[in-house]
Write a structure and sequence with these properties.
Elements: E1 4-8, H1 17-27, E2 31-37, H2 49-58, E3 63-68, H3 76-80, E4 88-91, H4 99-108, E5 112-117, E6 135-139, H5 154-168, E7 171-175, H6 180-186, E8 193-196, H7 208-216
Parallel strand pairs: 1-2, 1-8, 2-3, 3-4, 4-5, 5-6, 6-7, 7-8
Helix pairs in contact: 1-7
C-alpha cells in the first residue's frame, strides 16, 4: 500500500527552515503541507504567503496548500502564481460565498483542487463539491492549532466519504492528531494520505528518515 505522507510545516523549526525542508526530503516525505491562517477564519495566525513561496523555491516536491482564510477567492491568485501544476490547493467551503467558483480558479490555473472539511461540517453539505475536487482533506481536529485531541466522531464521516470516493473520483486525506494507530486503522479502509505534525513527526527527537521509514513499514 503506497501512502502519501505530508509534513505539516507549521510545526517545523523556523530557525532552520531550509535544513528542515532538506532533511524531510532526504527522509522520504512526499509533499509539504502549508497551513495559511488569517486570524479570522481560524483564531490563529500561522504560515504566510512568503513562507509558502520560500518552501516552493527550496524544494521540487509538491506543495499541499491549505487555505484557512476568509473569502479565499478574493486572494487566490496571490497564491496560485507561486505554485506549480502538481501542487494542491484546499479551501474550506464555509469560508466562501461561492466555493465552486474558487475551485474553478484553482482548476483553471492547472493546480489540483481540494476541499477541507471541518469536524462540524457534514458530508451532505459539500456533496456537490465532491464532484469537482480531486482531494478531500478531513480535519480530525478543529482547525487553527497543532497538538489538539482527535475527535472520535470524525471516523463516521470518513466512512461516508469512502463510500462515495470511487463514484465521484476523489481521494481522502487525514489532517490532525495523526498517530500510527490512526494510520493503521484508516489507511487499509482507503484513506490515501496523512498530514504528519507534532503527534508523530516533529519534535520527537528522531531523524525524519527513521520516523517516515517506520510509518511505511507498518503492517496493514
Amino acid at each position: 500500500m503506497q501512502l502519501e505522507l505530508m509534513a505539516s510545516m507549521m510545526c517545523a523549526d523556523y530557525g532552520n527552515l531550509e535544513k528542515e525542508v532538506k532533511n524531510l526530503e532526504e527522509g522520504g516525505i512526499d509533499s509539504f503541507h502549508i497551513d495559511i491562517m488569517d486570524g479570522r477564519y481560524v483564531p490563529n495566525y500561522a504560515m504566510s504567503l512568503n513562507d509558502m513561496r520560500y518552501i516552493a523555491n527550496t524544494t521540487e516536491k509538491p506543495l499541499d496548500v491549505h487555505l484557512m482564510i476568509e473569502h479565499p477567492n478574493n486572494r487566490i491568485q496571490l497564491f496560485l502564481k507561486h505554485l506549480r501544476k502538481e501542487d494542491t490547493v484546499y479551501i474550506h467551503p464555509e469560508a466562501e460565498y461561492h466555493p465552486s467558483a474558487t475551485l474553478q480558479s484553482i482548476i483553471n490555473a492547472g493546480m489540483i483542487p481540494g476541499i477541507a472539511i471541518n469536524p462540524g461540517t457534514s458530508v451532505e453539505t459539500v456533496m456537490e463539491m465532491l464532484r469537482i475536487v480531486k482531494k478531500v482533506l478531513v480535519m480530525s481536529v478543529n482547525p487553527g492549532n497543532a497538538g489538539q485531541m482527535y475527535l472520535p466522531y470524525v471516523g463516521k464521516k470518513i466512512t461516508k466519504l469512502l463510500a462515495l470516493k470511487e463514484d465521484m473520483d476523489f481521494e481522502i486525506y487525514w489532517d490532525g492528531a495523526c498517530s500510527a494507530e490512526k494510520i493503521l486503522e484508516f489507511a487499509p479502509k482507503g484513506v490515501k494520505g496523512f498530514v504528519l505534525g507534532t503527534t508523530l513527526l516533529f519534535g520527537r527527537g528522531k531523524p525524519y528518515r527513521e520516523t517516515l521509514q517506520a510509518i511505511r513499514e507498518l503492517e496493514f
